[in-house]
Amino acid sequence: MAKSFLALAIILYFCLFQCFAASGSMRKAKRIRARIPCKTLVFYFHDIIYNGHNAGNATAAIVGAPAWGNMTILASQNHFGDLVVFDDPITLDNNLHSTPVGRAQGFYIYDKKEIFTAWLGFSFVFNSTEHKGSINFAGADPLMNKTRDISVIGGTGDFFMTRGIATLMTDAFEGEVYFRLRVEINLYECW
Amino acid sequence: MAKSFLALAIILYFCLFQCFAASGSMRKAKRIRARIPCKTLVFYFHDIIYNGHNAGNATAAIVGAPAWGNMTILASQNHFGDLVVFDDPITLDNNLHSTPVGRAQGFYIYDKKEIFTAWLGFSFVFNSTEHKGSINFAGADPLMNKTRDISVIGGTGDFFMTRGIATLMTDAFEGEVYFRLRVEINLYECW
Amino acid sequence: MAKSFLALAIILYFCLFQCFAASGSMRKAKRIRARIPCKTLVFYFHDIIYNGHNAGNATAAIVGAPAWGNMTILASQNHFGDLVVFDDPITLDNNLHSTPVGRAQGFYIYDKKEIFTAWLGFSFVFNSTEHKGSINFAGADPLMNKTRDISVIGGTGDFFMTRGIATLMTDAFEGEVYFRLRVEINLYECW
C-alpha cells in the first residue's frame, strides 16, 4: 500500500508540474512569443523601369510624379514623389533569365528628397506546382541600407493567413533602369 | 480505503490526461490553427469609373497613368499602370440602387501588361446600426480568375484587430465603366 | 495514513482545478482576447504640402490627381483623387520645430467627393537610441471625425511583428498647406 501511495505521489508531482508549466507558458504566450520562423523562403525579383525606349522588356512604369517630374525619367531630388507600378519576374537565383517561379506585383513610391527611400505595397503571386497562392507585403524601404525589413501582412492559398518579416537586399542595379532585389522571407505565423 | 484509492486513481488519470492534452494542444496552437472562420460576411460593391462624361454618378477616377495613358480612358496594354481611386457604395444584394450599408474606399492599380490584374488597398467603412467600424484589405487581384483571395489585414470598431481572407468575384461589368464585385469575407481572427 | 490521504486529495483538487482552468482559458483564447494594449505610444507628425512656392520646407507633394486636378493645387470636390506622398517629421510634442524622433513616410489618397476622407498607407521609421525599427499602418481616415482609427498592420526592429490600432486626431491645420496629426498607437500584439 505504502509503495502504491508513493507511486501515486510521484505521478501527482509530475502532474502538478505539468499543470503549472502549462498555465505559466500560456500566460507568457500572450506576451513573449518565440521568434523562430515557421517557414523561410529566399527569392530574387527583377525590376526594369520603362524609360521611353524599352517598352519591349520593361516590367515597371512610372505612373505618378510630382510637379517637377514626368513619366519616363525618374524625378530629381532622389525621385521623391515618383510612383512606380511593377509586374516583376521572381526567380530562385540571381539570373534575370532564369525561369520565373512567380510574379512580384504592386507599387513603390519614392518618398524622401534627401536620400533614396521608398514605400512598398506588393504581392508575390505564385501558381506553380511548388507554390500556389500569394504573400502580401507592406512597409518602408530605406534603399541605401544594405538590408531593410518590411512586413508580411497576409497571405492566401499555401500562405493562408501568414505573417512575418521580409528582408530586402539590393543585389544589383544598372543605372536607373534595372535593379534586382534579394528577398528573404521569414514567416512567424503559419496556419 | 482501497475503494477511495481506486476513485482517486481514476480522477488522477483524467487529470493527467487533461494535463497532457492541454500542453499538447498548446504546442500545436503555435503551428496548426483551425481554419474555421469566426465570422463570415457577404457584400457587393459597385465601381463606376469617371470617363469624362459621367461626373454625376462616377464613384471612381483614374489619378495615375503611364506615359502612354491619360485620366479619362483606361490605358492600352490591359490598363497597365492605371491607378484608380474609388468611393464605392456597398450593398447587401447585387442591386446598384439598393440602400448602401457602407462605402468601399481606397485604390487599385492595374499591374500587368499581358492580362488584367490589379493590386488593391482599400477599406470597408461602416457606420450603421448593423456595423460600425472598418475592415482593411490588401492584396493581388488577378481579375480574370473567377474567384480571387486577398488579405484582411486589420479592422477597427466592430472589427477590432480582425484578420482573414476576402474572396472577390466579378459579379457583373458593363464596358470599361461599371463593374460590380461580390465579396465574401471570412474572418479567422476575432477579438 | 488518512491524514496524508486527505492532503493528497486537497493537492489533487487544486491540480484538477488548474487543469480545467488551463484548458478552459485556452479554449477562450481563440475567441475572446483581452483588449489591453501591450504598448502605448503618442506622437505628432507634421505635413507641409508642396504648392509651387514652398519647395524649401515642403514635406509632401501631390503626385497623382484626377482629370480635373494638377500637382500644385489640391483638387476641387474635396480633393477627390489627389495622391500625396510624404516624408514628415515625427515629434514628441505638438511643435513642428522640436527635434524629430523619426519620419512618417508613405502616402494618402483623398477618396470621397462629398467630404474629406483619405486612405492611408505609411510607416513610422525610427532610428534613435529610443526606438529602432518601423511601424506600418493602413486604413481609412475620415478626416472630419474628431478621432479616427486605422490599423497597425506590422512592424520591424523594436516593433517586430506588432499589430494594433492607431487613433489619429487632427491637432492643427493652416489653410491647405500645413496640418499636424496626433497619433496614439495602441499595440495589442507584441512579440
Can you put this structure into words, describing what you see?
The structure is a homotrimer of 191-residue chains. Chain A has 191 residues and is mostly beta strands. The first copy, chain A, has two domains: 1-33; 39-189, Allene oxide cyclase-like (AOC barrel-like). Helix content of chain A is 15%, strand content 46%. Chain A has one helix at residues 2-29, and strands at residues 39-48, 60-64, 83-91, 102-110, 118-127, 132-141, 147-157, 163-174, 178-189. Chain A has an eight-stranded antiparallel beta barrel with strand order 1-3-4-5-6-7-8-9. Chains A, B, C: Keywords: Apoplast, Secreted, Signal. Chains A, B, C: Pfam families: Dirigent (PF03018). Chains A, B, C: One of its GO terms (biological process) is phenylpropanoid biosynthetic process.
